[in-house]
Design brief:
Distance between the termini: 30 Å
Shape: globular
Order of helices and strands: HHEEEEE
Strand order of the largest sheet: 1-3-4-5-2
C-alpha cells in the first residue's frame, strides 16, 4: 500500500517536511504545506518497489543503484542502549520489529556491518545512525 502511494502521489523532501519521531497523532490532519508554509511543489515518486535482495552482494548492489535498501529486524532490549560500534544482539528480551534505511556498509574491528539510518533522532546512537552485524 505504501509503495502504491509513493508511485501515484509521491513524497516531498526532508527539507520541506522533516520526519520527527514520537509525534504521531491518531486521527491527525494530513499536512498540505512545507513546515515553512510553502506549498508542496516538488514531490518525488518511485517507479515501483524493487526486488528483495537475497545476498549481501545483492544488497550492496541495491545501495549502489538506488542509494538505500530497507531493513526490517527484531529489536532486543540491548539495542535501545546502543551508542557506537557494530551492534549485535547479546542480551535482553525481544521488544518487537523495526524498519530502517541501509545506506552503506563496511568493516570495523574485523566485523562486517551495514550502516543504517534510524528514525529515533540524532541524540540516539551515532548521531541517529548505527552499524549492525
Amino acid at each position: 500500500m505504501v509503495w502504491k502511494y509513493l508511485e501515484s502521489k509521491g513524497i516531498v523532501t526532508d527539507a520541506c517536511y522533516p520526519y520527527v519521531s514520537g509525534k504521531t497523532q491518531v486521527g491527525g490532519i494530513c499536512q498540505t504545506a512545507c513546515t515553512d508554509g510553502k506549498a508542496f511543489d516538488r514531490k518525488y515518486k518511485c517507479a515501483g518497489a524493487s526486488s528483495h535482495p537475497g545476498s549481501a552482494d545483492a544488497i550492496k548492489k541495491e545501495i549502489f543503484v538506488n542509494g538505500v535498501a530497507e531493513l526490517a529486524f527484531t529489536v532486543y532490549q540491548d539495542f535501545m542502549s546502543y551508542k557506537s560500534g557494530v551492534y549485535q544482539h547479546v542480551s535482553g528480551n525481544q521488544l518487537g520489529g523495526h524498519a530502517v534505511k541501509v545506506i552503506g556498509f563496511g568493516v570495523e574491528n574485523g566485523l562486517n556491518y551495514w550502516l543504517c539510518q534510524n528514525s529515533w533522532a540524532s541524540t540516539w546512537g551515532e548521531g541517529g545512525y548505527f552499524k549492525i552485524l
